[in-house]
């Protein structure tokens, strides 16, 4: 019973009517430096009963005025927002902070959520906001808002099954329900009085078989206690940082408490804060695994952003367009995760995430461990079902080691070939896609792909002439006059010169009337001249190719 009376701050099981709204409200407030966090989301009827009883025995401690199934919290349609400052929860609404609470209510209203008021239009409690237009009496009668999904319905059904304190509301119509046995068969069965009475409990990390299958990789990857000085997470045990444990327990914790964390509690935190919050239970195994791994290592926001980037990088669309890269797992993102071939999705996902890890400031310290982890992850994925769904026609390859021009080795060869054969458009697209991809991987904030594209395009516009572009830095290396004179001619001069200095003396040893014999004789008699010419002309050839690459980059950015 103790587990059923704990505070639950997990928003992933809320009704979809408010799930995305709650994320958006918190994100908006935090962007304004107002430190609200979700203190409580779904509330069990058992916890509601305890809170209600506490207020009746000690009126000064009243925190709720309704009993079990009387609060909107029981139906996953309300949350409590509370200030979280310096690792502590705070209900302080005095002084300047009063405006913070008012602002929270304003933002909530923008997302179809409202505080509670009494009949005199007085605010009942400041932290509580709920979906507009719902009443507890309708919910008790099983009248639920449209759009409920499986994760919400199953959790509410579990709460209803676990309650033995009186009448319960009707289960959501789409909650899975085992069919009843045939009465005629049951009548002929004698019950075994020696068997203990069955108990009903909420699904936990230990009882969730699918979670445990994927979690086995995280248990291997995270190990035990660590407190590396270069790790921004500080003291960590089983993948749980000190800050995460403080939020989970609702109070400050010591390093010793982190060290003493049990595997059971750690697993429950990982399942609630990362696996469930990213809605991994609704995804194919391979997709769920890569998302869960990233959530634990880099946070849920990065995990969902990478999922959205992977979907877009494959050229896939949902509802006629790409996903918005915002780190919020809304209806479109979960649909994309469900309907895209999990094998293809997981491959491009790991490629993108591996490229992102290589850009981290502490890669020199932790890079070997991260690369080993992603290599093992690729192996582990092969043990999971491939899944089904739509496959992309073309998958962008991003796993090779990047070079100085934001291109990998394969792409650089393709670029040179494209430019040398006149394929400037193909080269431009290749360079631009790589520049954008690199910037997306480096972005830790909520910068969307379209704003990154805008930045890449706009940062060089003023330096380019619309009609007659100036020389690129490579072509202008020896000054504008020489640069203009040799512009477009360096590669030809270099290649033709190399042929003359190396091939002709061997093919036409005496000139033969085709080549000036004096020129051939001088080359043969003076090896040093041939070496100098060969070096200079090789520089011309390389200079010409670099100039073409420079032009391609300029064209891509315009």
Automatic annotation (TrEMBL):
Tell me where the transmembrane regions lie.
492-509, 529-547
Please report a single Pfam family linked to this protein: Glyco_hydro_108
Q: Which UniProt keywords apply?
A: Membrane, Plasmid, Transmembrane, Transmembrane helix
- Residue ranges of coiled coil: none
Tell me the ranges covered by the TtsA-like Glycoside hydrolase family domain, including all copies: 220-299
SUPFAM superfamilies noted in UniProt: Hedgehog/DD-peptidase, Lysozyme-like
Whether tRNA-binding counts among this entry's keywords is: no
Q: Where is each D-alanyl-D-alanine carboxypeptidase-like core domain found? A: 13-123
Please state what the protein is called.
Uncharacterized protein
Q: Which organism is it from?
A: Tateyamaria omphalii
Q: What is the lineage of its organism?
A: Bacteria, Pseudomonadati, Pseudomonadota, Alphaproteobacteria, Rhodobacterales
């Amino acid at each position: 019973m103790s587990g059923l009376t704990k505070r639950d701050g997990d928003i992933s099981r809320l009704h979809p009517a408010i799930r995305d709204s709650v994320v958006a409200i918190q994100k908006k407030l935090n962007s304004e430096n107002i430190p609200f966090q979700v203190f409580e989301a779904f509330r069990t009827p058992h916890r509601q009963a305890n809170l209600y009883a506490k207020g009746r025995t000690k009126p000064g401690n009243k925190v709720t005025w309704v009993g079990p199934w009387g609060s909107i919290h029981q139906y996953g349609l309300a949350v409590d927002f509370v200030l979280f400052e310096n690792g502590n929860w705070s209900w302080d609404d005095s002084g300047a902070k009063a405006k913070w609470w008012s602002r929270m209510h304003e933002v909530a209203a923008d997302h179809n959520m409202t505080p509670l008021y009494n009949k005199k239009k007085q605010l009942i409690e400041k932290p509580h906001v709920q979906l507009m237009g719902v009443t507890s009496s309708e919910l008790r009668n099983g009248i639920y808002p449209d759009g409920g999904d499986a994760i919400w319905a199953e959790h509410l059904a579990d709460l209803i099954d676990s309650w033995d304190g009186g009448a319960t509301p009707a289960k959501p119509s789409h909650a899975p329900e085992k069919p009843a046995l045939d009465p005629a068969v049951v009548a002929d069965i004698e019950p075994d009085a020696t068997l203990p009475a069955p108990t009903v409990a909420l699904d936990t990390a230990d009882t969730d078989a699918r979670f445990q299958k994927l979690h086995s990789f995280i248990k291997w990857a995270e190990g035990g206690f660590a407190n590396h000085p270069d790790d921004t997470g500080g003291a960590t045990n089983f993948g749980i940082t000190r800050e995460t444990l403080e939020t989970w327990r609702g109070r400050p914790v010591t390093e010793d408490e982190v060290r003493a964390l049990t595997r059971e509690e750690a697993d429950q935190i990982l399942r609630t804060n990362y696996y469930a919050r990213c809605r991994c239970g609704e995804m194919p195994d391979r997709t769920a695994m890569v998302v869960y791994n990233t959530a634990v290592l880099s946070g849920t926001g990065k995990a969902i952003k990478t999922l959205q980037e992977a979907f877009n990088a494959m050229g896939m669309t949902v509802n006629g367009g790409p996903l918005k890269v915002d780190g919020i797992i809304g209806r479109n993102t979960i649909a994309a995760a469900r309907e895209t071939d999990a094998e293809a999705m997981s491959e491009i996902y790991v490629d993108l995430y591996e490229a992102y890890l290589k850009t981290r400031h502490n890669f020199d310290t932790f890079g070997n461990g991260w690369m080993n982890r992603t290599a093992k992850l690729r192996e582990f994925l092969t043990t999971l079902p491939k899944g089904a769904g739509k496959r992309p026609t073309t998958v962008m390859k991003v796993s090779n080691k990047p070079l100085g021009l934001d291109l990998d080795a394969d792409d650089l060869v393709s670029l040179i070939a494209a430019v040398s054969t006149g394929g400037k458009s193909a080269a431009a697209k290749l360079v631009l896609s790589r520049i954008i991809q690199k910037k997306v991987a480096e972005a830790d904030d909520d910068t969307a792909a379209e704003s990154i594209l805008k930045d890449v395009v706009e940062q060089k516009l003023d330096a380019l002439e619309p009609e007659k572009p100036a020389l690129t830095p490579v072509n202008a290396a020896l000054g504008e006059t020489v640069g203009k004179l040799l512009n477009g001619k360096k590669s030809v001069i270099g290649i033709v010169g190399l042929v003359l200095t190396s091939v002709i003396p061997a093919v036409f040893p005496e000139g033969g009337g085709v080549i000036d014999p004096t020129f051939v004789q001088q080359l043969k008699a003076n090896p040093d001249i041939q070496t100098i010419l060969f070096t200079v002309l090789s520089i011309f050839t390389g200079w010409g190719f670099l100039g073409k690459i420079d032009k391609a980059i300029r064209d891509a950015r315009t």
